[in-house]
Design brief:
single chain; alpha+beta; three-stranded antiparallel beta sheet
Amino acid sequence: MKLQITLKRSTIACLQVQKDTVAALGLRKIGQTVIKEDNPCIRGQIFRVRHMLEVKEIDIGADSSPQPEVIPDVQKTVRKKKVKAETDADGTAQQEQPEAEAGM
């Protein structure tokens, strides 16, 4: 059995011991998820910072690979560059060109 551990709260106003425990679990950012083996050492770390974590148990079959359920707030989103475009009279889009600085 494995544990799916997600950091839900910030470590900014926490004790240094709690910050170190979260780092030892492999968590750095809010919403980040790691999968760890279920053993007394990991359970003790989770108990120390239980107010900042969300923990789920994952059953893994002997012949299958781990397939944790997808958590929607953990999925990364792709950011696209916004391109400024102006339309001509005929409806075609033209991209703005950055102006060269004078006096270089």
